[in-house]
Every structure is written in structure tokens, then in C-alpha cells.
């Protein structure tokens, strides 16, 4: 560490002229790939990071377990379908993510703070902004990475279901259509959840708060909405049920796919939104995604350097 | 390297930079100022991250207002604060930062290994950063600023929090960044003694205004002086005073070294004699011998930047009424500790 040891190693290396190491400084005159490449690098680093890749072994445990938990029901469903020679899959493609929303929520709660709170907490953000990328690149890369991580989490089980369905020799056209609708649905879900998770997580540099806050936002909103919907259902005021669904992320997705992706609604009594209400759902969905992006941009205007 | 032209930055309640104009040439340049003098604001503007209120600045010939991204590709930046995640190794972190600077994956890995070795991190670079000492963390921060082989690095208070040995190491490293790596350096500090040893050129700003910009040798070598300390004898109970008088009679400019706080010398027992030429030494020697005093020390003493800075801030403080006053006291104090260490440089 001290100058003595440094020069000592140099002196030791110098006499052996044929050693491989050239101790002198070498300039770099290779290519510099610029902003778009840096953005891609940040994206892939964040996406890998969401599954613990490139991080410690410990941080791989939770995301990998959640991915396995996400896929296990799909494998079981496929096995049941094939052995009992069902006519169709026991679960709609579009319904799968709604059923397992708890797992998705846990994944988001664990990984969104990992992605953004960490940079805030250890103040690494200025290092990013002292490089060719701009604020928009950072936000886009983080957003896209989180959405892609969620898309993998929710998409892989659908792929398992689809392959299983084809192995069970179910109707190809039906299955492909259902699978495509399911994929569109989880893509929208991934964007929405990523946005919400990142906005909440970016508010605090404390990872623990971030985890708790994301879980709170998802479960409280869903709990409140489904409870009130349940009350409305028992009291017979079924008209308000579809409107209530606008107030929690997962029910927004449920409403959109009920209206446009021929999903059967998971709302109490199956009172999903009509096509007209569905338009409102889509507007709200896109508004939430855009709003999350806008809030993140605002957040990082303050934080940068 | 850097051309700053009448640059101002005003925040709603504070003027951080006030029509600052200065040119910075290749080499190691020190940017000195008290806390709040505008150093960090200037760095942000130079990186193209914060627009100037008025005026222009160019880094490596690129306009900071329009070509920030191109500037940041060729400039390295080491922040003042801690910025390292503790759960990754130095290698992983610096590789990532190299890629963020646009280096292809293979080059990023090679450059990381090279750079970490150059800043003095060896086997420990595979361990998580959380377990590093402050000195090692500072090296990692420096490495991430150098990994893309920039033409210029901006180092914000790189010696913050280091012990004296670590500080010397870091200063030596900064010097090597220029001499061995060929990278120009702009280093900020509020400790003048550091810059004196490291920099070719020193820029002093205070209250967002340029106080002085000149080469380090100008700062320190314009006037040489001689520190003389003598013993007391029975004939001359106060030898210092007697010598002072005799030297003054001999036509030399003599002053007692007054500030007891800032030196390793015994207070009131050292005379500072302005050196006019070779003959001054003879005059001093002969006078001491003539008085029959014992000569304890007679050594060349360079003026330190701090003295000039202190004088300058005094002027600057009175010139820029109001806000200057609060900051002028700041810089003088910390380098009092520095001086003791810097003395024997002469």
C-alpha cells in the first residue's frame, strides 16, 4: 500500500525483462461505444441484477426461489392436463398471473429497491451521470430492466403452459390465441408493476423501507378494492364493481384483459368491465405507466450529482 | 484544456459563481477555495450537468452547454463523497463503470485490471468493497475515474478523510496520473499544503470569484527567505533580538517570525531574513559569529501558498463586501497543521 511496497514490487518486476506484465501505463485507443451502448449495459446489468446474476450467491436465492414458485403451478397444471387428458387447460393463460399476484408482488418488492435504492443509498448515481448517459437513459434503462425481469417471471410459466398444452395435443389455434393474449396481458402487467415498484423504491434510499412500501402499496390497494367489491356484490350494487377495479394495479390489469383479451374476470361475481369501461381501464393503465415514468424522471432531476 | 469565460451560476438565494474567467492548461491544476467557494458547482458545470446562468465554458474544446455527453466520455470524475456499493468487488464495480463510459466488455475488463493495479489495489480487488479501508476506497474511486483513459480527470477533494500517510500516497498517485499516465488533472482541495506539492498550477477562487491563477512556482518561489535561530548568551540575554538589530544594521530586511501557532519553531526565537543573493548567507554567518551567539539553525524557507492565499483572501474579503467575510477565516486554519509538515521541503 505504501509507496515503498509499490516501488518494491516494481523493482522486483523490472529485472525479469521477459515477464508478461508490462507495468507501465497503457493508453486506450480502442472504440468508445457511447451513450446507447452505455444505456444497454446499464439495462443488462440491472436485468441480471434482478435475478441476482453478477451479484453474491446470497442475492440469487430469493429471485430464483420466486421464479421456481411461479413456474411450479404451471408444471403441475400441465402434468394434470396431460395425464387426465383434459380438453383444455384448467386455468386461462390470462388468469395465471392474477392467481399468483402475491409472488409477483414479492419479487417486485425485493428487486425494485435492489435496482434503484441501492444506487441512491450508496450515492453511485452521480457516477452514472458523470458518464455519457443522461438522466433519461438511466430511467429508461432501469424501467426497462425491471419490466423485463417481471416479464420473464410472468412469461416463463405461460410458455410452460403453452408447451404443455401442445404436448397434450389441445387445439393449436385456441391455445396459440390464448397464449398470445396471456403474453400481452403480462407485458402490460410488467410495465405497470415495474413503474409502481420503481417509483416507490426510488423515494427512499433505505432498502428495507422500499421493500415494505412496495408490498404495502400492492396489498393494501388490492385488499381494499377486493373487499369493497365484495361488499358491493353482497349488497347487490354490481354496477360499481367494475369501477372500483380501477383503484388497484392488479385489478386494472384484470379489467383490461377482461374487456379486450377475452379473459374471464376475477372480480366478485365476475362483474368485469364492459368494453366501454374497458377503454377507461386502458387509459388509466397507460396513464399510470406514463405517470410512473414522469415521476422517476422528476426524482432523478433532483438526485443527479 | 479548460476555458472558462465570464461564467456565472446563480441559485435563487446564492451566487455560486460570479463572472469567473480562467484558462486551465494541461498538467496538474489545483482548484483552491473554502467550502462553499464554488468548486463543486464549477465541476458540475464543466461536466455539462448543470447549465450556467451566463457565460461560456469549454472542456477539451467542447462546449459544456451543448456537448456534455462528448465531454463526459473523455473526462473522468471522482466525487468528494462516498459513492461505492459495499456488496460488489472493486473489479466488478470498475468494470461496470468502464462499460458505462462506453468501453466494450473485453476492453473494460482489461482496463479495469490495469487501472486497479496502477492505483495500488492487488489481490483485495476481488473482495467486496464493504471491507475496504478509506484509503482503498479512495483508490477505487480514483480507478473508476481513470478506467476509460480520459484526457482529463476532475478530482473533488481526493484526500478527504485520509490519514497523513494515505494522503501522501494519494498525492503521489495524483502526480503520477499526470507524469506517468499523461492525463491532465484538475484537483480541488481546501488544504493548500497539498496542492503546493502536487500541482503545476494553482487557481484560487473565493465566493465564486477568481482570486488568483498562477503557477505553483510563482506562488512559492518569488521571494526566498532564511530562517535563523540563535542561542542566548550572557553578553546577549536575548540573542534573537540582538541579532535582529545587528542584521538590520547590516542592511538586511529582518522580521521576527511572529505566528507562534503555525510552526515547529520556538515562538519569538526565529528571525526571517529576506535573501537578496549569495552574500546574505555570509552576512548572517559573520554577524552571528561577531555577536558570539550559537547558531541553532539557518535554513532556506520557501513562502507557502497559504501565506499568499491568506493575504489574498484578506484583500478579496474586503473587496467583495459581505459574503466574503464569512469564508475568509476558513481556509487559513486547516493548513496550520499542514505547515509543520511542509516546512522541511525547503
Description:
The complex is a heterodimer of chains A (305) and B (346). With 305 residues, chain A is mainly alpha-helical. Chain A has twelve helices and no strands. The longest helix of chain A is centred in the middle third of the chain and has 33 residues. Chain A is globular. Chain B has two domains: 218 residues, 3-Layer(aba) Sandwich (Rossmann fold); 80 residues, Alpha-Beta Plaits (2-Layer Sandwich). In chain B, 40% of the residues lie in helices and 24% in strands. In chain B, 47% of the residues are buried. The chains are: A mainly alpha (305), B alpha/beta (346).
Give the percentage of residues in beta strands of chain B. 15-25%
Low-confidence stretches of chain B: 260-265, 312-346
Radius of gyration of chain B: 24 Å
* Structural class category of chain B: alpha/beta
Annotated CATH architecture of the largest domain in chain B: 3-Layer(aba) Sandwich
Q: Can you tell me the number of structural domains of chain B?
A: 2
Question: Class of the largest domain in chain B in CATH?
Answer: Alpha Beta
Shape of chain A: globular
The CATH superfamily of the largest domain in chain B bears the name P-loop containing nucleotide triphosphate hydrolases
Helix segment tally of chain A: 12
Amino- and carboxy-terminal Cα gap of chain B: 31 Å
Helix content of chain B: 40-55%
Percent helix of chain A, as a range, is over 70%
The biggest sheet of chain A amounts to: none
Return the domain count of chain A: 1
With strands numbered from the N-terminus, the spatial order across the biggest sheet of chain B is 6-7-8-3-9-10
Amino acid at each position: 500500500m505504501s509507496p515503498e511496497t509499490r516501488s518494491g514490487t516494481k523493482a522486483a518486476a523490472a529485472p525479469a525483462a521477459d515477464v508478461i506484465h508490462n507495468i507501465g501505463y497503457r493508453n486506450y485507443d480502442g472504440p468508445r461505444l457511447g451513450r446507447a451502448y452505455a444505456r444497454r449495459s446499464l439495462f443488462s446489468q440491472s436485468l441480471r441484477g434482478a435475478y441476482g446474476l453478477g451479484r453474491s450467491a446470497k442475492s440469487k436465492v430469493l429471485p430464483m426461489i420466486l421464479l421456481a414458485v411461479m413456474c411450479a403451478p404451471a408444471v403441475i397444471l400441465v402434468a394434470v392436463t396431460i395425464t387426465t387428458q383434459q380438453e383444455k387447460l384448467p386455468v386461462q393463460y390470462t388468469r395465471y398471473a392474477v392467481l399468483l399476484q402475491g409472488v409477483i408482488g414479492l419479487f417486485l418488492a425485493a428487486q425494485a429497491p435492489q435496482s434503484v435504492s441501492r444506487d441512491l443509498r450508496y450515492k453511485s448515481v452521480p457516477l452514472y451521470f458523470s458518464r455519457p448517459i443522461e438522466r433519461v437513459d438511466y430511467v429508461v434503462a432501469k424501467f426497462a430492466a425491471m419490466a423485463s425481469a417481471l416479464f420473464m417471471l410472468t412469461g416463463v410459466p405461460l410458455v410452460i403452459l403453452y408447451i404443455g398444452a401442445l404436448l397434450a395435443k389441445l387445439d393449436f389455434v385456441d391455445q396459440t390465441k390464448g397464449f398470445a393474449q396471456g403474453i400481452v396481458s403480462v407485458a402490460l402487467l410488467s410495465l405497470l408493476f415495474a413503474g409502481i415498484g420503481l417509483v416507490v423504491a426510488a423515494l427512499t434510499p433505505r432498502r428495507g423501507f422500499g421493500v415494505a412500501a412496495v408490498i404495502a402499496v400492492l396489498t393494501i390497494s388490492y385488499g381494499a378494492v377486493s373487499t369493497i367489491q365484495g361488499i358491493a356484490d353482497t349488497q347487490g350494487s354490481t354496477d360499481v364493481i367494475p369501477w372500483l377495479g380501477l383503484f388497484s394495479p392488479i385489478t386494472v390489469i384484470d379489467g383490461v384483459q377482461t374487456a379486450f383479451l377475452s379473459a374471464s374476470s376475477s372480480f366478485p361475481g365476475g362483474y368485469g368491465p364492459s368494453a366501454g369501461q374497458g377503454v377507461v381501464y386502458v387509459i388509466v393503465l397507460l396513464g399510470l405507466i406514463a405517470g410512473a415514468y414522469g415521476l422517476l424522471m422528476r426524482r432523478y432531476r433532483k438526485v443527479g450529482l | 484544456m479548460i476555458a472558462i469565460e465570464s461564467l456565472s451560476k446563480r441559485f435563487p438565494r446564492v451566487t455560486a459563481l460570479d463572472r469567473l474567467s480562467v484558462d486551465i492548461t494541461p498538467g496538474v491544476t489545483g482548484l483552491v477555495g473554502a467550502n462553499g467557494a464554488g468548486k463543486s458547482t464549477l465541476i458540475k458545470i464543466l461536466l455539462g450537468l448543470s447549465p450556467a446562468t451566463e457565460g461560456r465554458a469549454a472542456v477539451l474544446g467542447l462546449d459544456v452547454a451543448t456537448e456534455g455527453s462528448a465531454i463526459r466520455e473523455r473526462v473522468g470524475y471522482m466525487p468528494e463523497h462516498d459513492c461505492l456499493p459495499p456488496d460488489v468487488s472493486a473489479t466488478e464495480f470498475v468494470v461496470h463503470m468502464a462499460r458505462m463510459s462506453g468501453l466494450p466488455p473485453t476492453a473494460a475488463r482489461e482496463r479495469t485490471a490495469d487501472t486497479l493495479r496502477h492505483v495500488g489495489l492487488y489481490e483485495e480487488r476481488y473482495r467486496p468493497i464493504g471491507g475496504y479501508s478509506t484509503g482503498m476506497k479512495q483508490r477505487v474511486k480514483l480507478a473508476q475515474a481513470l478506467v476509460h483513459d480520459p484526457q482529463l480527470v476532475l478530482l473533488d477533494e481526493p484526500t478527504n478523510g485520509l490519514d497523513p500517510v494515505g494522503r501522501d500516497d494519494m498525492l503521489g498517485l495524483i502526480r503520477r496520473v499526470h507524469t506517468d499516465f499523461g492525463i491532465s488533472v484538475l484537483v480541488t482541495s481546501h488544504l493548500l499544503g497539498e496542492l503546493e506539492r502536487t500541482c503545476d498550477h494553482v487557481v484560487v477562487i473565493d465566493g465564486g470569484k477568481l482570486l488568483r491563477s498562477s503557477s505553483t512556482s510563482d506562488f512559492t518561489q518569488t521571494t526566498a527567505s532564511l530562517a535563523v535561530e540563535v542561542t542566548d548568551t550572557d553578553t546577549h540575554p536575548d540573542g534573537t533580538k540582538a541579532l535582529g538589530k545587528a542584521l538590520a544594521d547590516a542592511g538586511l530586511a529582518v522580521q521576527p517570525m511572529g505566528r507562534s501557532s503555525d510552526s515547529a519553531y520556538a515562538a519569538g526565537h526565529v528571525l526571517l531574513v529576506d535573501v537578496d543573493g549569495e552574500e546574505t548567507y555570509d552576512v548572517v554567518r559573520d554577524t552571528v559569529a561577531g555577536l558570539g551567539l550559537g547558531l541553532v539553525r539557518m535554513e532556506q524557507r520557501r513562502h507557502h501558498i497559504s501565506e499568499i492565499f491568506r493575504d489574498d483572501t484578506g484583500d478579496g474579503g474586503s473587496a467583495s463586501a459581505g459574503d466574503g467575510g464569512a469564508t475568509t477565516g476558513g481556509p487559513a486554519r486547516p493548513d496550520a497543521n499542514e505547515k509543520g509538515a511542509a516546512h522541511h521541503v525547503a
